[in-house]
Amino acid sequence: MEHPENDKQYKGLQVNSGVGSQPVVNPYRAAMRRKRVELSAGDYVEGILKGDVSILGRAVTLIESTNERHQAIAQEVIEKCLPYSGKSRRIGITGVPGAGKSTSIDVFGLHIVRQGHRLAVLAIDPSSERTKGSILGDKTRMEKLSQEKDAFIRPSPSAGSLGGVARKTRETIVLCEAAGYDRIIVETVGVGQSETAVHSMVDFFLLIQLAGTGDELQGIKRGIMEMADGIVINKCDGDNVERAKLAASQFRNALFLFPPSPSKWKPEVLTYSGYYEIGIDLVWDMIDRYFDFVIANGYFERKRNEQAKYWMMETINEQLRNHFYGIPEVRALLEQKELRVLNNEQSSFTAAKDVLDFYFKRLRGE
Ligand code: GDP
């Protein structure tokens, strides 16, 4: 195009045409640019069903996004993937920090992949924040596994309410299964409430324990032990072997006192070493035996059905809560009412009723 300053009114000025921008020489760069194009829900589903890892990863990012439009696409993708999901074995792994979760998942994962399975490792850690570097499900913590093409490792969705983080992981499981991953590991730290959330989305719950602190049994919440289908004592190597075996027998005795689990499966206690890769196959044999057992006695399906109901209710509860607390006027009224309740000017119940009345009236557009 002729440059405007070449017009006669700019006397003595001559603008030559410069060097145009070079064509893209690096085809990968061009491909990267193309990638940024937004995909439709159908594109995502097609990619996922083909087992395209990069599309799967992007779809998981949509699930994790708080953007409403992303959420809408994510929900459509999940819905369309549902008929292709459910065919994996889902295993929850918990243990206190330092118990050896990542070391163990790294070697468990290799064991699984070498058996010809495709494995997805997900995590639930409501305390994590991406920017601070999440603790769980981090690829750098699972160096060997992260190089396997049949392993998909995804860190915990970043901080949020436990319910929200757990729901996202639950939804991610659906996509991973649709993408052909037939083994799913969900990792969580055994210190808070997150085990319950993990328990509600897995078939088998593995508790990693350590020996040698002298107060093994006291340190563990009874509830977590009751949820466990298997307890494994890690770091059974070197000088630690005897102590690990002793801890195992203490756990066996403790489990004896527990009521039988609804699955009728008797939780087993094993020792192993994640670091030296001793006893890995035994741990996995136990898990396989569990699946054979619960599939045969019908518990596997019953539990899956209960979990599906649970997640429906959880999702309803979460959405209702979000909607309720998402209305600024409701929050303002709540603050006022809180003061009145604290000052003994109104009872908790009438205050709650007033806020709910306000909310329902607003819903009806009154
Ligand atoms: P996480 O916090 O539960 O994920 O634990 P890590 O896997 O990061 O392990 C914590 C520490 O324990 C690391 O220094 C590991 O090298 C070490 N560790 C893990 N597994 C074993 C094991 O089987 N034997 C020994 N001796 N050390 C281990």
Task: Describe the secondary structure blueprint for this structure.
Layout: H1 27-35, H2 41-49, H3 53-64, H4 68-81, E1 89-95, H5 101-114, E2 119-124, E3 151-153, H6 162-178, E4 183-189, H7 194-199, E5 204-209, H8 222-227, E6 230-233, H9 241-256, E7 268-271, H10 280-297, H11 299-325, H12 328-342, H13 348-363
Parallel strand pairs: 1-4, 1-5, 2-3, 2-4, 5-6, 6-7
Guanosine-5'-diphosphate binds at residues 95, 97-103, 234-235, 237, 273-276.
Can you put this structure into words, describing what you see?
This protein has 366 residues and is α/β, with parallel strands linked by helices. It folds into three domains: 36-84, Up-down Bundle (Single alpha-helices involved in coiled-coils or other helix-helix interfaces), CATH 1.20.5; 86-297, P-loop containing nucleotide triphosphate hydrolases (Rossmann fold, 3-Layer(aba) Sandwich), CATH 3.40.50; 326-364. 49% of the residues lie in helices and 10% in strands. The protein is built from 13 helices and seven strands. The protein has helices at 27-35, 41-49, 53-64, 68-81, 101-114, 162-178, 194-199, 222-227, 241-256, 280-297, 299-325, 328-342, 348-363; strands at residues 89-95, 119-124, 151-153, 183-189, 204-209, 230-233, 268-271. It has a seven-stranded parallel β-sheet with strand order 3-2-4-1-5-6-7, sandwiched between helices. Helix 9 links the parallel strand 6 (230-233) and strand 7. Helix 3 packs antiparallel against helix 6 (162-178). The radius of gyration is 27 Å and the shape is globular. The termini are far apart. The relative contact order is 0.09. Mean pLDDT is 86; it is low at 129-134. Guanosine-5'-diphosphate binds at residues 95, 97-103, 234-235, 237, 273-276.
